[in-house]
């Protein structure tokens, strides 16, 4: 059966179209810088916001109208698989992502939960084989269940730690079964409420232990997806151990996880950390650790994770420029960790929202490509740092100077003449690319 019989496969129709259910900018086979647009972007649909988010908020009950609810939780779960792949196919998305609890009910025990997961992933694999849609990444939800009130890998309870480990093992088994290209750890409660009763070193040591167990188990079963850590500064914990890209890279390096872990970066998490999305991507690039992106946007007027569909062309352009500078994002992708607004409650809004996000990233990609072709940022930076290409600067770059020689130079020369950045002019010209 079709859950969306009135919606056809979404096609590219250009900016003149009046069809709501059409791409205005995303043309998957259009070649940009020698590669098809769809291969640059590697779009993925998030199972959680698409299939399980109900439109409720702290002040209101569920409002979303969804056609897939059955008589039992497992019937609903099976219906969701059918509806989800219909959405992916009609949007032309070639990848998807999920948490374990998104796809199957937890039941009354861990054993029942894992049995449910096995049954539903059998159905998912059938749909993957039928459609060619691939698993970008999966992960374990180790933050929603009350047992994780004090964290999962960072818990104070060894039995809870064992359950977290069991979920990760099951997650990797699922990843192998479905051919997952990445596996994400998002530490939803891996942090602390107060230091008064927290052993920070023990908690972080235990998190690293779990990651190393995952690496070892992946090698044992002959499945080594790209492991990803997803930084987030706060919410739900007051302080998350993976606060931002730089903090997370410090963790990775401290525990010797380089080469096994990269970063899955989310735009809204960057906002909460007081950074821009492009900043977080640039940090990951500096460490050769850009893994994948969660595409959304936050509201700077609100202090929580609003997970809006990305529609800010400037922000996405700058993010995509960093991706192009990285040489692409594969085996990662661009996952729409985004949910429709509470007022957009009709089922068809799932399509309209994803169209908006995909169009925005298409525009950002084309803008970023033009910026690279014109060497817009390259020329700015070359001019700004020109003093390091000759004379004293070149000697500094070649490690031919020390503190004594630079002291002698500084005291024997007049103050340098500085040049204006003309940054307002730069931003004005940048707007022309949008």
TrEMBL record:
Sorted alphabetically, the keyword list is: Carbohydrate metabolism, Cytoplasm, Isomerase, Magnesium, Metal-binding, Xylose metabolism
Listed under subunit, the entry gives: Homotetramer.
Cofactor section: Mg(2+)
Q: Where does Mg(2+) 2 bind?
A: 266, 269, 305, 307
Give start-end of the signal peptide.
none
Q: How is the cofactor bound?
A: Binds 2 magnesium ions per subunit.
Give the positions the UniProt entry annotates as the active site. 99, 102
Has the keyword Isomerase been applied to this entry?
A: yes
**Catalytic activity line of the entry:** alpha-D-xylose = alpha-D-xylulofuranose
Location of the protein in the cell? Cytoplasm
| NCBIfam families per record | PRK05474.1, xylose_isom_A
Name of the gene encoding the protein in the UniProt record: xylA
What is the name of this protein?
Xylose isomerase
Which residues does the annotation say bind Mg(2+) 1? 230, 266, 294, 337
């Amino acid at each position: 059966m079709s859950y969306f019989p009135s919606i056809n496969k979404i096609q590219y129709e250009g900016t003149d179209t009046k069809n709501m259910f059409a791409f205005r900018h995303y043309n998957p086979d259009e070649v940009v810088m020698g590669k098809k647009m769809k291969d640059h972007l590697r779009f993925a649909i998030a199972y959680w916001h698409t299939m399980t988010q109900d439109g409720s908020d702290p002040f209101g009950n569920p409002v979303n109208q969804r056609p897939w609810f059955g008589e039992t939780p497992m019937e609903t779960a099976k219906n969701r698989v059918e509806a989800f792949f219909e959405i992916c196919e009609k949007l032309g998305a070639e990848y998807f992502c999920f948490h374990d609890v998104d796809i199957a009910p937890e039941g009354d025990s861990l054993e029942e939960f894992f049995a449910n997961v096995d049954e539903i992933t059998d159905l998912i694999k059938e749909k993957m084989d039928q459609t060619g849609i691939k698993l970008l990444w999966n992960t374990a939800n180790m933050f929603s269940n009350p047992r994780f009130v004090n964290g999962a890998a960072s818990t104070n309870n060894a039995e809870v730690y064992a359950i977290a480990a069991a979920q990760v093992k099951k997650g990797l088994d699922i990843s192998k079964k479905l051919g997952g290209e990445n596996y994400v750890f998002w530490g939803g409660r891996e942090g602390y409420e107060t230091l008064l009763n927290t052993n920070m070193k023990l908690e972080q040591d235990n998190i690293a232990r779990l990651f190393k167990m995952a690496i070892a188990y992946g090698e044992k079963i002959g499945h080594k997806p790209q492991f990803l850590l997803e930084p987030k500064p706060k919410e739900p914990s007051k302080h998350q151990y993976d606060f931002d890209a730089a903090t997370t890279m410090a963790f990775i390096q401290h525990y010797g996880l380089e080469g096994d872990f990269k970063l899955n970066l989310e735009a809204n998490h960057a906002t909460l950390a007081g950074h821009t999305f492009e900043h977080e991507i640039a940090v990951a690039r500096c460490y050769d650790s850009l893994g994948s992106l969660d595409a959304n946007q936050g509201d700077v007027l609100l202090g929580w994770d609003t997970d809006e569909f990305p529609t800010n062309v400037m922000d996405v352009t700058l993010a995509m420029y960093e991706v192009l500078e990285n040489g692409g994002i594969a085996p990662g992708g661009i996952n729409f960790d985004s949910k429709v607004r509470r007022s957009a409650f009709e089922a068809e809004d799932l399509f309209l929202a994803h169209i908006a996000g995909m169009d925005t990233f298409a525009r950002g990609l084309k803008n970023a490509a033009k910026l690279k072709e014109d060497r817009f940022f390259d020329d700015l930076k070359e001019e700004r740092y020109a003093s390091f290409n000759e004379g004293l600067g070149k000697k500094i770059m070649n490690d031919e100077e020390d503190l004594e020689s630079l002291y002698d130079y500084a005291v024997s020369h007049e103050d340098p003449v500085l040049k204006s950045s003309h940054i307002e002019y730069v931003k004005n010209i940048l707007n022309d690319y949008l």
